[in-house]
Write a structure and sequence with these properties.
The complex is a heterodimer. By secondary structure, chain A is an alpha+beta fold. Chain A has helices at residues 15-19, 43-52; strands at residues 2-5, 24-26, 32-34, 58-61. The N and C termini of chain A lie close together (4 Å). In chain B, 45% of the residues are buried. Chain B has one domain (9-390): Orthogonal Bundle (Cytochrome p450), CATH 1.10.630.10. In chain B, the strands form 4 sheets. Chain B has a 6-stranded mixed sheet. A 3-stranded antiparallel sheet of chain B has the order 5-13-10. Classes of the chains: A alpha+beta, B alpha+beta. Bound molecules: protoporphyrin IX containing FE and iron/sulfur cluster. The site of iron/sulfur cluster has 15 residues of chain A, from helix 1. Chain B: It comes from Streptomyces bingchenggensis (strain BCW-1).
């Protein structure tokens, strides 16, 4: 599984950071940044972040 | 399904004395399509009640937040909000891409990390207010003496209002959100605040600090006038909403004492109470289908946050207060590009307020029976006029 995070679409709501603090952070400019690709233990958290993100900035590529 | 010429229903009201959303919402959610309703301000709008449909409305690019569009819902005069077209920087009323310029300038100030840095200041504010409560005897009105000053003092901190001006600032913002203020009092308080903010901005221009206004002034894409509009928006958007949530959340915890001390009560209180039920107003700028209903360009839409947050398809046993449930997909802060900028600040304020209040005053209880609490049943925001407590 790979995470695509589109900083242009991101509105800095920080839902991803709350849902999956191991996978996401907010840059100095407040927009999303991916810390690491999800592993077996964090796949569900990644899906949760996709579901919660209000701007559709996060997508997952399965694999 | 509603046809375009169906008679609009009356805008749903809260039942006096109840903490749950208007009873009509359940019927509206299970009905096919959408229903038209007439607003207190006179216009006719589509009501959206299902969780999935509310999210669709708030993310559809054919649906606008700009009140200058023909057909935008009018809630009538509510005293606190200046006409957005007259306040540059009032970006909750802008659509993408203009909206993005303001949002991008502000998000660095509201990240999860930035709010963590504010935690000691929030704790200090909450502690001082509780000191004053305890010094004052064994009863209090938690709205006036706690729930309202917490967000107002936190916003002072955020904006960089000097400590010596806190009382002035708090007293002026108080007038704006107090039910019994007259229109003249509100208008003059709003003018005084704008004058104050303009002065503060020119001082920060010369002597920048480590605060939000100083940060925004460094941003070359924003004019000083826009910075003052943004400051006013933050002040108004973050004051009564937060105060109502703090006060009503205390009531929820007093009625469900087994959850006192559980930090998850914050998220569930946000969902359950949904104080900003009817805050996100929209208008279709192109024809669009929502929930199986054709909405024509120029028709107003009111996505009802409390209805979505009590939708059984999104939350099991939705009318039950259960902090143990996963509740984070609630829309108490809206959804889409306008989703509340202040949400992590609110979580920090509510969490600190509940934890500290019940730690320091464990015997806290209501001073009147719950059904006698003076709820704001009529306003745009759900809340309490007063919260008489004793300990
Ligand atoms: C419990 C308290 C709060 C609730 C329930 C709440 C709710 C909301 C809602 C529903 C929206 C979306 C409006 C729309 O889509 O048209 C919103 C937007 C906003 N909120 Fe909050 N809010 C709260 C506290 C705050 C605080 C403390 C601040 C700032 C200090 C704040 C600042 C804003 C701003 C600036 C926007 C506009 C964002 C944009 O347009 O991009 N809010 N809020
Ligand atoms: S949840 Fe979405 S909008 Fe919010 S910070 Fe993460 S990517 Fe950005």
């Amino acid at each position: 599984m790979r995470i695509n995070a589109d900083a242009d679409r991101c509105v800095g709501a920080g839902q991803c950071v709350l849902a999956a603090p191991d996978l996401f952070d907010q840059d100095d400019d407040g927009t999303v940044t991916v810390l690491t690709e999800p592993g077996a233990a964090t796949k569900d958290a990644a899906r949760e972040a996709v579901h919660l993100c209000p701007s559709g900035a996060i997508t997952l590529e399965d694999g | 399904m509603a046809t375009a010429d169906a008679i609009p229903i009356e805008f749903p009201r809260r039942q006096p004395g109840r903490l749950t959303p208007p009873a009509e919402y359940a019927g509206l959610r299970s009905q096919e399509g959408l229903v038209k309703s007439s607003l207190p301000g006179g216009s006719t709008v589509w009501l959206v009640t299902r969780h999935e449909d509310v999210r669709s409305v708030l993310t559809d690019p054919r649906i606008s937040s700009n009140p200058l569009h023909e057909g935008f819902p009018s809630m009538g005069k509510n005293g606190t909000v200046p006409p957005p077209d007259q306040v540059p920087g009032w970006f909750v009323a802008y659509d993408p891409p203009e909206h993005g310029r303001f949002r991008k300038a502000l998000i660095p100030e509201f990240t999860v990390r930035r709010i963590k840095e504010m935690q000691p200041a929030i704790q200090r504010i909450v502690d001082r207010l509780i000191d004053a409560l305890l010094d004052g005897g064994n009863s209090a009105d938690l709205v006036a003496q706690f729930a309202l000053p917490v967000p107002s003092l936190v916003i002072c901190e955020l904006l960089g209002v000097p400590y010596s001006d806190h009382e002035y600032f708090e007293s002026r913002t108080r007038v704006l959100v107090t039910f019994t203020s007259t229109d003249e009092q509100r208008e003059s308080a709003a003018k005084e605040l704008i004058t104050y903010l303009t002065k503060l901005i020119s001082i920060k221009h010369k002597f920048p600090g480590n605060d939000l206004i100083s940060g925004l002034l460094k941003n070359e894409t924003l004019t000083a006038q826009e910075v003052s509009g943004i400051a006013l928006l933050l002040l108004i958007a973050g004051h009564e909403t937060t105060a109502n949530n703090i006060a009503l959340g205390v009531v929820m915890l007093l009625l469900n004492r087994e959850w006192i001390g559980d930090p998850r009560a914050v998220e569930e209180a946000l969902r359950y109470l949904s104080v900003a039920d009817r805050v996100a107003l929209r208008v279709a700028v192109e024809d669009v289908e929502i929930g199986g209903q054709l909405i024509k360009a120029g028709e107003g839409i009111v996505p009802l946050g409390a209805a979505a947050n009590h939708d059984e398809n999104a939350f099991e046993r939705a009318d039950q207060f259960d902090p143990g449930r996963p509740a984070r997909h609630h829309v108490a802060f809206g959804y889409g590009v306008h989703q509340c900028l202040g949400q992590h600040l609110v979580r920090a304020e509510m969490g600190t307020a509940y934890r500290t209040l019940f730690e320091r005053i464990p015997t806290l209880r209501l001073a009147v029976p719950p059904e006698e609490l003076p709820f704001k049943d009529e306003g745009i925001l759900f809340g309490l006029h007063e919260l008489p407590v004793t300990w």
